[in-house]
Amino acid sequence: MPSPHPHSTAPRRRLAFRKSLVPIALGTLLIGTLGAGSAVASQDDDPGLVRVSGAENAVDRTEIARTGVSIDLVEDDGTLLVTAAPDDVDEIADLGYEVTEAGPSAEAMHPDDGYTSYPEVVEHVDGLVAEHPGLVHSQVYGQSYEGRDLLAVRISDDPTVDQDKPEVLFTHSQHAREPLTVEMAVRIMDMLTEGYGSDERITELVDTREIWVVPNSNPDGTEYDRSGDTWQNWRKTRGANEGSEALGTDMNRNWAHEWGCCGGSSGDPGSMTYRGQAPESATEVEALADFVRSREVGGEQQITTAIDFHTYGELVLWPFGYTYDEVADGMNQDEYDTHEALGELMADSNGYTPQQSSGLYITDGSINDWLWADQGIVNFTFEMYPGSPGDGGFYPPSDVIGEETARNEEPVLQLLDYADCPYRIIGEEETYCG
């Protein structure tokens, strides 16, 4: 598909803007304001948090994203919170946007032991399997670049057997610096196992669905992110890149649908949004894609619905991200309306803002787009708590874990409910589900 016209008008409805409760992010100190073409002072070449003003719509935001930065949040007034290296900042300023720099507070960025490490995730899964052998089964679907087992957990009334039931997939932590998503995985697994037999709704859903939870798809990245005295603000995997000293690939720009098509990712290995050398070139993406493909039985994909959890911004997003168009090649009106209606239903439950992914800015090579276009899976990206950097950004205090993961219990159950026929939500079950 061609790239969207750079001067086209992006859709403005359903755009999500979240207002910061403080003037700067994560306890940072305001350093200064820069005009177009000015340079941001920096101690080194490490990425830092900056604010960008003057982006009026999704086209402007896409222009900024194409410099290779990570846009972390769009605030109420249109100001962007961006993770950017000094060279990226210069490029953004050269485009005519105003940039304000801030430096992270070491105290605010200190790793929180209340978050679950990868060894603790594995231990928790092993405990669930031991305690609920008739409900929970885990399998290793691959190894990470550094050799860690990648786990998929199946929850069903007969979890060691492939059954003729609709399957649902929940994935977490493609981006390492988003530890709340791992806690969401733990919450889903605990909710379904603890509720089975005592909660009628959960019991029925577990009996009539096969539920897959990938609790951490990027364990190398998450373990590195928590490895120092401060969080490392690490987004990518930890794999080597040929010809570069920069490590890692942005998993959520490495998927095979419209990979690198539309300026929604970076070809620079040093960028936070580096798309990799080829589709599925990241070890972890290839393994997860192979796992999803393995759920095809007799030419039919058994996974019908999915959520990929991220932070932050409190959004429910759906395909496509590579184009501003709602109806495009591979997405007809009924299919779009189904995503929209399910997204809005779930957002009504958790208080998030629902919208098409590209309503923020163009991305390409995302799991969101691949799951639908390549596998026909109705799917969503959840950007979890917080809604503002003042509440912790990527690293909110662990005392919010209970409340903020519970907030998504109802949306998870709603998606499970519609897994038998997502088109039921628009009244088209006879047309699409027979």
Question: What would you say this structure looks like, in words?
Answer:
This protein has a single domain (118-433), classed as Zn peptidases (Aminopeptidase), CATH 3.40.630. Helices cover 28% and strands 19% of the residues. The chain contains twelve helices and 15 strands. Strands 6-7-9-8-12-15-13-14 form an eight-stranded mixed beta sheet, sandwiched between helices. It has a five-stranded antiparallel beta sheet with strand order 1-5-2-4-3, with helices on one face. The chain has a two-stranded antiparallel sheet with strand order 10-11. Helix 8 (333-350) runs antiparallel to helix 11 (409-417). It is globular. The model is unreliable at 1-44 (pLDDT under 50).
